[in-house]
Amino acid sequence: MGPRIGSVGEEAQMTDKDTKSPMGTEDTPGDVASPESQDLQPSVFHNIKFFVLCHSLLQLAQLMISGYLKSSISTVEKRFGLSSQTSGMLAAFNEVGNTALIVFVSYFGSRVHRPRLIGYGAILVALAGLLMALPHFISEPYRYDSTSPVDTPQDFEASLCQPATLAPAPSNGSSCSSYTEAKHLALVAIMFTAQTLLGVGSVPIQPFGISYIDDFAHNNNSPLYLGILFAVTMMGPGMAYGLGGLMLSFYVDINRMPEGGINLTSKDPRWVGAWWLGFLISAGVVALAATPYFFFPREMPKEKHELLFRRRVFAVVSKGADSSLEQSPEESPKKRDGLAQIAPDLTVLQFIKVFPGVLLRTLRHPIFLLVVLSQVCLSSMAAGMATFLPKFLERQFSVTASYANVLIGCFSFPSAIVGIIVGGILVKRLHLGPMHCSVLCLLGALSCLLLSLPLFFMGCPTHHIAGIIHQPGAQLALERFPGCMEPCSCPVDNFNPVCDTSARVEFLTPCHAGCANRVVPEAPDKSQVLYTNCSCVVGGGTVSSGSCDSACSHLVLPFMLLIGLSAALACITHTPSFMLILRGVKKEDKTLAVGIQFMLLRVLAWMPSPVIHGSAIDTTCLHWARSCGRRAVCRYYDHDLLRNRFIGLQFFFKTGSLVCFALILAILRQQDKDEGTKVVACPDPPQQLLLSGPEKKLEEFRV
Predict the structure, then answer these.
(1) Could you tell me the CA-to-CA distances from 413 to 233, 283, 294 in Å, in that order?
(2) Cα(85)–Cα(72) distance, rounded to whole angstroms?
(3) Given pLDDT bands bounded at 50, 70 and 90, which one contains residue 699?
(4) Nearest-CA neighbor of 471 among 644, 641, 649?
(5) pLDDT of amino acid 401
């Protein structure tokens, strides 16, 4: 989920199985320079354990800043008047810079000073976080009432029912100058630039850190270090949503509050939280985590001793089951003659020329292609859910942005982590081969799909909003306002919602409810404003500021419980599907196949999915706010249509992954039948071994 648990785990598997192999028998430069290494040994920066600690903290902070925008996406929309399609594009834009450069990481390899390059990338990530918060400081203070440049008590009087002779003149002409529009575009462009730089800065952090650990850690300690690294890293997205939940509980202009304070609560639909504060905090954490990397050496002495803890666990759990893995370091240097081995000897142009051929050869493998397509479907589901689930909860169940982020941080990401761990344990303990891995993936995808069905029926209907109608098959529009407010001259674009709690009817402004007076209770409940003498309310009664409360907010917890279970079941497929890739391509192409997999996931899932989900959400809007003649943020959605289209997209992607896993199982069964036919047709033992050996080796692998 920007932030993605799937890619982190996959790189762990790749490094453990493949990258480790050639380093097991070749002496690293750190081993050669033994006198110097002995002199440098006392330094903490020549200790691989300290590097693992630093890199765990850095990746945690990097994923936290990458995922923070998703936790505040609806707030950014309201603050800058963006549609969901535009905000989805903004959330996906960090993948643009990342995808453009990630292919060349395998080319550079160990040619560069990896710790220092990681530090430079982290500094760029921190600068991108600061740049992301810049629009808050160079923009005007937030106006939650659009009748005057600054929010004052007089704004509330202007939104009351007044005769046309006393009503203020519309200010659209004066406020919609070319300068205002240019400034708005500049603010949006700054955020897109910041997201691009965030993706560029993230490129060297993970792959160079993993390879550095694997190069200089003891061969038997490397998997443990990487496991610790990814376990800590997985907490990053969850912490991003937790940070978002905390920051959005503060008002956006907390650093420049008006003198009289504000008359808003966090439940008011006009509330905008301090979205920018999380970027400043995350950027500071990333900058601090980047500092040690400028003191690590380019090469350090290879760790010579296996951890005592690791040796005990290995003796108890494995009991010799991984003997085949211990032999791989001796064999792999002789067999790894693919692009991953010769890449260091190629120039940039030669690397670019060789890459398309290997790409096409890898994509022609049916198992690899189907596994990648299934992961594209699951990643598309995760990207859309991570980006717009907070907004969906806000709109569907009328909860605050802060509470929605807390729910996601407590349910979704811990469930996903548990699913990945359970999937890995099942593959390890049951010694699953390719056939049984595909069965596990199929069962996980099917269970995830079935749990999605109740979500279509768990939601709240759209409450009645005076003046807004929804005719099936017709265009959504503002109907003629009731006759009770005809004497009033109500601003067209003003938005100050009030609720008639007795009839559960919401009005766009107090003016549209025909209210003539305003009452502000004494502290401490100063934010709960009441409007009286409302001609559109039965008996000329009173309405309260803010939207009407939802009648089914209690369904949000069961909804999130099902979302968490679905995430766990979907993530169970992570490890077995990755093993299908590792055992389904040629050994010399494994490293590049994993790189191609990550590239395709970014291009086909993490980049387009937020835009697709945002566009689908925009089609459910009932009432758009207008800014200088252009369509801005959506004020009201059709809740039933929103739920059906958002959950429907999730259901579509889950169905796609299920179909892919079913095809994988069918292909493996057919290959198994073909293998049996070859064995029967070739009774001669040498020929039988020659023909069926590769298939048997594929089926008999153990994890």
Answers:
(1) 12, 22, 32
(2) 15
(3) very low
(4) 641
(5) 92
Which is more confidently placed, 139 or 694? 139
CA distance 295 to 44: 10
Share of residues in the chain with pLDDT > 90 (%): 36
State the amino acid at position 95 in one-letter form: E
pLDDT digits (tens, 9 = 90+) for 28-54: 444 444 444 444 445 788 888 899 999
Cα 297 from chain centre: 33
CA 449 from chain centre, in angstroms, equals 20
- Asked if the model's pLDDT at residue 6 lies above 70, the reply is no
Would you state the pLDDT for residue 40?
42
Least Cα distance to 52 among 325, 421, 310 occurs for 310
How far lies 165's CA from each of 169, 174, 488, 490, in Å? 10, 20, 10, 12
CA 224 to chain centre: 26
Q: Is 540 left (phi over 0), alpha (psi -120 to 50) or beta?
A: left
- Cα angle for residues 336, 340, 346 (degrees, 5° grid): 120
Pairing of strands 464-465, 505-507: parallel
Whether pLDDT at 569 is above 50: yes
Q: How many CB atoms lie within 10 A of CB 299?
A: 21
Q: Which two tokens stand for residue 297?
A: 């050496």
- Is the pLDDT reported for residue 174 higher than 70? no
Distance, in Å, from the CA atom of 650 to the CA atom of 311, rounded to the nearest integer, reads: 44
Laid out side by side, the sheet with 464-465 consists of: 464-465, 505-507, 498-500, 543-545, 530-532, 517-519
626 - beta bridge partners?
Answer: 631
Q: What are 244's two structure tokens?
A: 């978002």
Exposed (0-12), middle (13-18) or buried (19+): which is 120, by Cβ within 10 Å? Answer: middle
Q: How far apart are CA 359 and CA 174, in angstroms?
A: 57
Under 8 Å between Cβ of 511 and 559: no
Beta pairing, strands 498-500 & 477-478: unpaired
- The SS3 of residue 598 is helix
Beta bridge pairs of residue 273: 251
Rounded-to-10 torsion of CA 392, 396, 399, 402? 0
If you average pLDDT over residues 554-566, what whole number do you get?
Answer: 94
Q: What is the pLDDT of residue 290?
A: 95
At 305, which amino acid appears? H
